[in-house]
Amino acid sequence: MIATTPVGSWSWETKTQISDDDLATRCTQGVLNAWMVLRARGLAEGNARADLTVRAKDDDTVLLGLKRVHVDLQSALSGNQFFSDLPTVDWDRVGVVTIDLSTPGASLRAGQPRHVEKLFTISVDAWASGAGTLTLHTFSDAWMSHDLRGHKQPEVQEENAPRLKSALAAIEQLTEAETIPSDPTSYGIPTEDGFEDLPDEDPDLLDSWYMFEVPRRTEQIQAKLPRTAVSFGMETNSPVEFFEVAVGGRVVGYLWAADGDDAAGYEPRTPAGDEALDTGCSWLARLSEAKKRGLSPSQALRDLSAWPGDSQAGTIVSASLREASSLEDLQELSGRE
Predict the structure, then answer these.
(1) How far is 179 from 196, CA to CA, in rounded Å?
(2) How many CB atoms lie within 10 A of CB 303?
(3) pLDDT value at position 290?
(4) Residue ranges in 43-153 assigned as alpha helix (H)
(5) Closest listed residue to residue 89, CA positions, set 66, 122, 112, 70
(6) 3-class state of residue 96 by DSSP
(7) Phi, psi at 313, each rounded to 5°
(8) What distance in Å separates the CA atoms of residue 231 and residue 262, rounded to the nearest whole number?
(9) What is the pLDDT of residue 18?
(10) Which of 83, 162, 274, 334 lies 20 to 30 Å from 240, alpha-carbon distance?
(11) Which pLDDT tens digit goes with each residue over 33-74?
(12) Minimum mean pLDDT range among 25-29, 34-38, 211-215
């Protein structure tokens, strides 16, 4: 399964001998080196998206911030900078440059690759002092003894954990720095070479998906709505009917309804990446409008299925209407690669 926040992270701290070098180049090279490590092990593929933050050395003011910039792999390998706006920065004021590169990739399930839009994020900080930090974040449970629902997955771990272990060792060799695992997360316990095996307990006790992931992503989407927005109920114990929502032909979420509890909502398909969360706000806003018009949840669902959509919200996939036995089952489906 894929989470919206990191399942685990690892960091490497470095120090250069040159304190007045080009911070953007140093930062970009660090990201590119780690990216190539992941690609060599089949853990990253295609192009990527990057965020850039440039902060002042004196007061930590953000001098430049860019979000989700498309990074073409071949252009990056040719030595081109990731960002075209960098020349506008007053480099005498810069204290640190940070790049966060989110990479599509694939985990293995029974030998078959399962592709996701954000398998890893590579974060590199380059300070004017010469210090630097490289951090690798993963959003997948494929390396763990149990999935995010708390069920043992020895075959999945056996297929994927060695790939992650190899990548961590390669980055340690590349940076010539010790691998420092993050503190335990809501999902697992990172170690120097992967994850510590979780205890074989009742799956409900290890079900971090419903304890943490579903509430977090729901809060992220709802936070973008006006506080005055009316809404259908967000929970139901009844079966739900749902449509797929797609952007550019790729399914990014599910619009659902359950008349019995006057409930309706949107579940982001987390393997689709950040776009799944972005799209949700538009659909919840339209459900709110349907509620104001007095429509039932199922009426709202069918009303929205006739809307042609737009570039931000995407569109409902025709003939995709089906039923899940529960909202919980649909939420689990939304996290599967």
Answers:
(1) 15
(2) 15
(3) 95
(4) 73-77
(5) 66
(6) strand
(7) -85, -20
(8) 10
(9) 62
(10) 274
(11) 999 999 999 999 999 999 999 999 988 899 999 999 999 988
(12) 25-29
Which of 208-244 are b and which e, b meaning 16 or more Cβ less than 10 Å from the residue's Cβ?
bbebbbbeebbebbbeeeeeeeeebeeebeeebbbbb
Q: What are the two backbone dihedrals, phi and then psi, of residue 314, each rounded to the nearest 5 degrees?
A: 80, -155
Rounded CA-CA distance 329/149 in Å is 11
Q: How many whole angstroms separate alpha carbon 274 and alpha carbon 22?
A: 30
> Three-state SS for 47?
coil
Tokens for 246? 């797609």
Whether the CB-CB separation of 238 and 256 falls below 8 Å is answered with: no
DSSP output for 262-291: TEEEEEE-GGGTHHHHHHHHHHHHHHHHHH
What's the CA gap between 10 and 22, in Å, rounded? 25
Phi, psi of 288 (to 5 degrees): -60, -45
pLDDT over 80 at 85, yes or no: no
CA angle 29, 33, 39 (to 5 degrees): 140
What letter would DSSP give residue 86? G
Query: Is the pLDDT at 312 greater than 90, yes or no?
Result: no
DSSP sequence for 56-80:
ETTT--EEEEEEEEEE-HHHHHTT-
**% of the chain at pLDDT higher than 70:** 98
Instruction: Please identify which residue in the block is written with the tokens 């709202």.
Output: 300
Joined tokens for residue 167: 């990548």
Q: Which residues contact 146 (CB under 8 A, 6 or more apart)?
A: 152, 153, 198, 203, 206
Q: Give the pLDDT of residue 16.
A: 76
Structure tokens at 203: 């799956």
One DSSP character per residue, 201-251 reads: --GGGG-HIIIIIHHHHHHHHHTTS-TT----BS--SS-EEEEEEEETTEE
Structure tokens belonging to residue 162: 């060695």
Taking the C-alpha atoms of residue 27 and residue 51, their distance in angstroms, rounded to an integer, is: 12
CA dist 157 and 192 (Å) reads 16
Amino acid at 50: A
Number of other residues whose CB lies within 10 A of the CB of residue 323: 12
Instruction: Look up residue 68 and give its DSSP letter.
Output: E
